[in-house]
Amino acid sequence: MVLLIDHRALNRDCLVRSLKASNADIDIRGVGSLDEWLAASDQETPTVIVLTLHDRSVRDEHCCALIRDIRARMPGCPLVVVADTDDLAQMLKALECGAQGFIPSSVGIEVASEAIRLARAGGVFLPASGVLAMRDVIESMMRDNSGPNGMFTPREAEVVEELRRGKANKIIAYELDLCQSTVKVHI
Questions:
Q1: pLDDT digits 0-9 by tens, 40-57
Q2: Which residues pair with 121 in a beta bridge?
Q3: Do residues 126 and 83 lie in contact, with contact meaning Cβ atoms separated by under 8 Å?
Q4: What is the pLDDT of residues 125-169, one digit of tens each?
Q5: Torsion angles phi and psi, residue 19, rounded to 5
Q6: Which of 58, 127, 134 has the alpha carbon at shortest distance from 99?
Q7: CA dihedral (139, 141, 146, 148) positive or negative
Q8: Which segments of the chain are extended strands (E)?
């Protein structure tokens, strides 16, 4: 069962109906808040929680606190964030706060449905749009700032190159013999 948390009733109802229409096998229920769900006497443990933030920034401390609170109160349940942005920094912040996926509202319902399914199976979803946009920025910076007088130290440049190749932080840390936290600092 998928639990959709959205404080906007009309948006919540539309998203629940759209997800059901795109995937008849999905059992999805919508609520205004996690407290509303937990107060219900017939609650069932969800297999994934979808939290909609709309136009609120994930970098806002209130949003991060909300994500962390849901993760603390439902620790075994994957959490996917839906927001009105495809900014990679916000996507990564959502993951840092405990989300296991990020769906920008610019994607279609089929993609959203599959992203939820992936999170339920234990995967992590980030849309390619944000990652590819960052790749272009990194490549531009590498061209403009290459060489010893560039803006990156040699080690930072190695991390950037691995990111450009699409590698995850954990893989970069392993291959460059760094801690994951060091990779994040370099990023």
A1: 867 788 999 999 999 999
A2: none
A3: no
A4: 988 877 777 777 777 766 665 544 467 788 888 888 888 888 888
A5: -65, -40
A6: 58
A7: negative
A8: 2-5, 28-31, 48-54, 79-83, 101-104
Q: Would you say 6 and 30 are in contact if contact means Cβ atoms under 8 Å apart?
A: yes
> One-letter amino acid identity for 132?
L
Q: Cα–Cα distance between 104 and 91 in angstroms, integer?
A: 9
- In the numeric block, the tokens 């059901």 are attached to 20
pTM: 0.71
Q: Is 48 exposed, middle or buried (0-12, 13-18, 19+ CB in 10 A)?
A: buried
Q: Which residue has the tokens 């990111």?
A: 163
Distance CA 186, CA 165 (A): 16
Smallest Cα–Cα separation from 78: which of 47, 106, 109, 103?
47
**Which residue's structure tokens are 């109802």?**
13
